[in-house]
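question for whoever is on the cluster today: can someone run the full assembly for these? two chains, 1028 residues total. i dont have access anymore since they changed the login thing
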Amino acid sequence: MRLRVRPLSIQAGGSNIAILGENTASLLGIHSSDRLQIAYKDKCAVAIVNVSASFPRECLGVYEEVSKKLEVGTDDEVEVQFAESPESLHYVQAKIRNERLRKSEIDLIIKDVVERHLSDIELAAFLTALQIHGLSMDEIEALSRAMAETGSNLVLDRKPILDKHSVGGIPGDKTSILLVPIIAAAGFTIPKTSSRAVTSPAGTADRVETLCPVSLSVEEIKEVVNKTNGCMVWGGALELAPADDIFIQVEYPLAIDPMLLPSIMSKKKAIGATHVVVDIPTGRGAKIKTNGEADDLADDFIELGQRLGIRVECGVTFGEQPLGNTIGPALEAREALSTIMGNGPADLREKATSLAGILLEMVGLEDGKHKAEELLRSGKAEQKLREIIEAQGGNPQIKVADIRVGDKKETITTDMDGEVLWVNNEDLAKIAKEAGAPKEKGAGVMLWAKLGDHVKKGDVLFDVYAERGTRLESALKLAANLHPIGLSRRPEDRMLVSRIPARSVHRKAFTLER
Amino acid sequence: MRLRVRPLSIQAGGSNIAILGENTASLLGIHSSDRLQIAYKDKCAVAIVNVSASFPRECLGVYEEVSKKLEVGTDDEVEVQFAESPESLHYVQAKIRNERLRKSEIDLIIKDVVERHLSDIELAAFLTALQIHGLSMDEIEALSRAMAETGSNLVLDRKPILDKHSVGGIPGDKTSILLVPIIAAAGFTIPKTSSRAVTSPAGTADRVETLCPVSLSVEEIKEVVNKTNGCMVWGGALELAPADDIFIQVEYPLAIDPMLLPSIMSKKKAIGATHVVVDIPTGRGAKIKTNGEADDLADDFIELGQRLGIRVECGVTFGEQPLGNTIGPALEAREALSTIMGNGPADLREKATSLAGILLEMVGLEDGKHKAEELLRSGKAEQKLREIIEAQGGNPQIKVADIRVGDKKETITTDMDGEVLWVNNEDLAKIAKEAGAPKEKGAGVMLWAKLGDHVKKGDVLFDVYAERGTRLESALKLAANLHPIGLSRRPEDRMLVSRIPARSVHRKAFTLER
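^ ran it for u. tokens below:
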């Protein structure tokens, strides 16, 4: 059937989508979600159809993705016909039935995800089925490989290549800003790519961006690494595993994360990592709640690494409260810089040198933690950080005070004496986000009381920082409702943790950071 | 934040969707699938956001659903802010985790489905989770009630109200066109609503439409039923269970049908049915494959009926081949009319009187099948059918030959002697659809050989009818590839059913008819 093109002047978010009116769709025997093959001159595209009640007859609406591909404009005549659904859709349906997927089938699915041949409905069903049924290690390996192979690779002519990754989940985790310079100062290569925040108040890329540019091209990254052994860049524009970026769009509203392992490890594969330490923050307020869960996840990372030719070790870390005393991009960058310069909180220093120590021992050094501490203490790590900042285009003389934080600030004090019994990661993250983080980089929370601290009536619990008065106000309102820090004279004085007076919606926290 | 409206001149298929450019979304801290509250003058709407890379800054794209609701046009300034996701989304997420859903939670989900507050991604996840985890009878009951309550009802001042429904799955099933007149001729009320084909070559509404109009309003239906005791109308426009129409859009591409029971029974509830016979065609080529499955499904229908105050009995029927000899709307209507006039195939007559007999016995008559046969033999059923046709606006004198079938026809013969060992429902349905059914009503297949028939070389196996030569050709090409009728001299001469030379995609048949 020949139809006249009506270009819509917007993108469909990457997918090839075409619109048909009800009558035209019915004549073609086509329903919403069916595929349509569209031919124009010597070009051809397959689009997923949305049927729209009022769309004019014998017209074909096309989003920009399709009109660009076919080079069609208003009233151009295209020839359309029903197209079979892609073979990969059958494997999506097989996964709903809990059938195991073979490597070739997973390859097809990932190829069609990247080429946008599967609709959001089909992706949602696939990810939901994976979330429910779980994945076998064969499937995880195949997904990791397929996701890396359909993206670009970073080829560095160096070996070994070290890397670090956190499965995410606690606010204020600025470990990488210390660990990367330590490893690079020890003479090893560590081309660290990071994400921006998705559900959290700050991702590593957001933090580093207050020190220097992070959106570097592959060529620029190579130059920085060749000069300094390391880098700290935003991975988003590199398309290391483009399928994952598409999956995240669907996982996010559903608050599911079935792809944790392949998502992380495909990117490690794409940058050619040979030795990776995986940080698994564990605790009530973290993504991983118990040591048992953490151990299982660690085993999976290690086995997957072996299959992919990457040596992996894991560090299970204390995740019951934020790391250090700051949450929010600029506040965290200040704290990281201050710590690498010899000050800063002990927990951050401890965690960074522990994980760096594991990496150093993995490549054959002895007493890695001690070496890492030495690199920190001697100022070599700081010097290396400044080299990296300079190589990425930042100011190597940057001082803590140069990092701008929000000039709207309010202090939250306590009205009782007592000991800090809990610090709620999720509540503090919410307050920092309400204050404007991560987009407003100067916004966030500075914690003055942490687990085990004794406070007196009138002492400061935390400060809220914001760049705008309205954000500060709404963050303070939220803070007043949440009580993110729990105090008691003695634990035995406060046994009731919460009271549930009637049925209520329990909004579960969800962390999606990679 | 204030944004300028850019109306898109198309519908989003019912949902409230708004488009934001990347930069504007980022400033608002909003991701794709987040909700945006949009205020204009005294009107307010919540829309689901799609983030589109190239969309202009500080503009808000809105599909017709949103622009109509807010009465906004180009460059109108609206105030937008982040809106929490609806509470029902948390119950969708709970179902992914296999938590049981309470009645109040299901009510909220169905309300938000009908009001389009859940996105396609969220609906796909919900239906996939239901397909995988299954539903408890409490959940099925709550879904059935909620789906009926969110739609319109047909209130007839009569009792009892009888109905019949098939779970679907075999081609050529024109039973209702005989059963409805039989029941109505017996003096009982049977306001039958039917669907059009979704995945099959003909739905009952498609068949009846070749006899008389089927798109009647609720008032017209009442008039027809008051005049004749019965009707045979298209249920689609009545909005008896609008949630189901939305679910079907998502189930269709995924080839899943977790809502079978609530979908059917919500509509029975909405028309006030008191006695329902459910036909469960069973066999290799049907939706339900084994008698065990059929029995389990029957038990569920009966229990659900009890909970909803509807008496249900089920008929498990032979489903290994098409019913009668015709497939396709007009060919089937011809066969139904011919059968009610005293001719026609025995299997159709047998099935219609058996199911009608069950219904008659359910309302207290004895020897129901015999009574049904008597109404058929005496011509009273035919007379009633003609009354219904007239009341719905058709020609009551309609003759078999008046029903127009396709004038393009080709005959498929056999090149061997033998007995019919199998008749493939799915293949025959595919051929009828390739010939143009259900949209081209005269297209379809006429079967001349059925199970157990002995044929000789040169005998006709089936005819293909089409309205257009191109469709006939492609249907014949398909028929030549499929071999829908399996012959053998003796069964023991043909033990190999199929040969699988290498791995291939097994496209599973999927029936979605309600």
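summary bc i know u wont read the tokens: The radius of gyration of chain A is 25 Å. Chain A touches chain B through 56 residues (CB under 8 Å).
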